[in-house]
Automatic annotation (TrEMBL):
Belongs to the 2-oxoacid dehydrogenase family. This is dihydrolipoyllysine-residue succinyltransferase. It comes from Lupinus albus (White lupine). It is found in: Mitochondrion. The keyword Lipid biosynthesis does not apply.
Length: 465
C-alpha cells in the first residue's frame, strides 16, 4: 500500500532556484536504496508577489536525514488539477443537493417562506426554486444544475441556516417519471367511512345489542346579560408573523422605549413646487428619462435644512454625540410584505435627476423584493410619505440609529389668506418627530421651518438664501 503524504510549505522567497540547489546537494550525499513501493509526494508552493504557485518536485531515497529526523521520501512530479464546482450545492453523482446560500454578514438564519417548485417540476440552472425570508430581505435560492426536483427536504416555515440542504435535484430524471414524495406532502388520507359502514351491514343482526338511550345532557346555563358576548373562536385565524414583520415590530418598539420622542408640525403651501413640476416635467423626462416628482424636492430641502441644523444629523452613542459630516437620506417604502427603508447615499452631492433615478430604482426593487441589506443599512434622516395613501396628519416614529424623521402627508386644497384675500391653496401638513434628548425644540422648529421656506420658494436653493 502506497503511503501518500502531501505537504504544502508556504515561502516568501522570490527565488525557487535556491531550494532546488539545496535539494540537489542533499541528493548527492544520499544512497539510492529506495524501494518503488515507498512513494511520498511532496508539494512545495511558493507565494511570491502576484505570481502563481511554483511546485518543485525531486527524488530523495530512503534513509535520508533532515534535521536529525529519519525520512523516507521520494519526490516525483505530478500535474495537479483543480475541480470547479458551482457554489451552494453538493454533487452526489446523478443527484445534486440544493443548499442555503450565505445570507448576510449579520444574519445567521432565515425562514423558508415558500417553494417555487414542487417535486417532479423541471428546473433550469440558476432558476429560483425557493425563497428565504430574513429579518430584512427575501433571498431567492437558485438551482445549481438543470434537472428535475426529486425531493424537498424541509417544510415551508422552517428555520434554515447557510449550508442546510433544502432539496435534491436529479439530473437524469424526467419530469414525467415518478419522483420521491417530499417531506411536505401530507400522508395518505384515511379510508372513507363508507367502507366501514358496508362492513357493519354485513354483520349478523343477532350480535347487535339493544341501544340504550343515553340521558340527555342538561341544558347549558344561559349567560347573564352582563357577560360580554364574544365571537366564537372558529371565526378567528391565527397566522404567524413573518420575519420582516417581527423585525419591524421589534425595532419600532425599541425606538419607542429608547428615544424621548416629540413631534412638531407645520403646513406648507405647495403652489410653487407643483407649478415648477408642471412647467418642466416634459423637458425633465426628455432629458433625464425619469419623471420629476415631489419627493426629490423635499429631499433637497431636507439636505439644505440639515446643513443649517447639523444637530438633527447627529446621534447619541452612549455618553457621546456623533456628528456625521455626510448626509444619507432614508426613504420609507411600504410593500405588501412590510416596511422597507432604502438609503440614498450622499444625497448632498446629488441633483434632482440623480435623486429621482435612485428613488425609481429603489421603488422597483422594493416591489420585486430584491433590495439588498447594504441598500437599507445606515441613513441619517428618514422621510416618510404617508400622503400617497391619503394620510392627512401623523406622528412618525424615529428609525434608529437616527435622531429624527420627517413625515409628508396628502395635499389638500384649503382656503388660505394671501395678500389680504382668501384664496384656495394646495396645502400639506409636515411633521418632524425628533429625539428630544439631543435636539431641542428650537432646532427642531428651525429645521422644519427651513424645509417649509424652500418648498414654498425653490429659488432659495439656487441663491442659497
Amino acid at each position: 500500500m502506497f503511503g501518500v503524504i502531501r505537504r504544502r510549505v508556504a515561502s516568501g522567497s522570490p527565488s525557487p532556484l535556491f531550494l532546488g540547489q539545496s535539494v540537489q546537494k542533499l541528493r548527492s550525499g544520499l544512497s539510492v536504496t529506495a524501494r518503488a513501493s515507498s512513494i511520498v509526494e511532496k508539494q512545495i508552493a511558493f507565494h511570491s508577489g502576484e505570481c502563481g504557485n511554483v511546485r518543485s518536485l525531486c527524488h530523495i531515497s530512503r534513509g535520508s536525514w533532515i534535521k536529525s529526523k529519519p525520512m523516507r521520501e521520494v519526490f516525483r512530479q505530478e500535474a495537479t488539477m483543480q475541480t470547479w464546482r458551482r457554489p451552494f450545492s453538493s454533487d452526489n453523482g446523478d443527484s445534486v443537493d440544493v443548499v442555503v446560500p450565505p445570507l448576510a454578514e449579520s444574519i445567521s438564519d432565515g425562514t423558508l417562506a415558500k417553494f417555487l417548485k414542487r417535486p417532479g417540476d423541471r428546473v433550469n440552472i440558476d432558476e429560483p426554486i425557493a425563497q428565504i425570508e430574513t429579518d430584512k430581505v427575501t433571498i431567492d435560492v437558485s438551482s445549481p444544475e438543470s434537472g428535475v426536483i426529486f425531493k424537498l427536504l424541509v417544510n415551508e416555515g422552517d428555520t434554515v441556516e447557510p449550508g442546510n440542504k433544502i432539496a435534491i435535484i436529479s439530473r437524469s430524471a424526467d419530469a414525467t417519471t415518478h419522483v420521491a414524495p417530499s417531506e411536505t406532502t401530507p400522508e395518505k388520507a384515511a379510508p372513507q367511512p363508507t367502507q366501514k359502514i358496508s362492513e357493519e351491514k354485513k354483520a349478523p343482526k343477532a350480535e347487535t345489542s339493544p341501544v340504550t338511550e343515553k340521558p340527555k345532557a342538561p341544558p347549558a346555563p344561559q349567560s347573564s346579560h352582563s357577560e360580554p358576548q364574544l365571537p366564537p373562536k372558529e371565526r378567528e385565524r391565527r397566522v404567524p408573523m413573518t420575519r420582516l414583520r417581527k423585525r419591524v415590530a421589534t425595532r419600532l418598539k425599541d425606538s419607542q422605549n429608547t428615544f424621548a420622542m416629540l413631534t412638531t408640525f407645520n403646513e406648507v403651501d405647495m403652489t410653487n413646487l407643483m407649478k415648477l413640476r408642471a412647467d418642466y416635467k416634459d423637458a425633465f423626462v426628455e432629458k433625464h428619462g425619469v419623471k420629476l416628482g415631489l419627493m426629490s424636492g423635499f429631499i433637497k430641502a431636507a439636505v439644505n435644512a440639515l446643513q443649517y441644523q447639523p444637530i438633527v444629523n447627529a446621534v447619541i452613542d452612549g455618553d457621546d454625540i456623533i456628528y456625521r459630516d455626510y448626509i444619507d437620506i432614508s426613504v420609507a417604502v411600504g410593500t405588501s410584505k412590510g416596511l422597507v427603508v432604502p438609503v440614498i447615499r450622499n444625497a448632498d452631492t446629488m441633483n434632482f435627476a440623480e435623486i429621482e433615478k435612485q428613488i425609481n430604482t429603489y421603488a422597483k426593487k422594493a416591489t420585486n423584493g430584491t433590495l439588498s441589506i447594504d441598500e437599507m443599512a445606515g441613513g441619517t434622516l428618514t422621510i416618510s410619505n404617508g400622503g400617497v395613501y391619503g394620510s392627512l396628519l401623523s406622528t412618525p416614529i424615529i428609525n434608529p440609529p437616527q435622531s429624527a424623521i420627517l413625515g409628508m402627508h396628502s395635499i389638500v386644497s384649503r382656503p388660505m389668506v394671501v395678500g389680504g384675500n382668501v384664496v384656495p391653496r394646495p396645502m400639506m401638513y409636515v411633521a418632524l418627530t425628533y429625539d428630544h434628548r439631543i435636539i431641542d425644540g428650537r432646532e427642531a422648529v428651525f429645521f422644519l421651518r427651513r424645509i417649509k421656506d424652500i418648498v414654498e420658494d425653490p429659488r432659495r436653493l439656487l441663491l442659497d438664501i
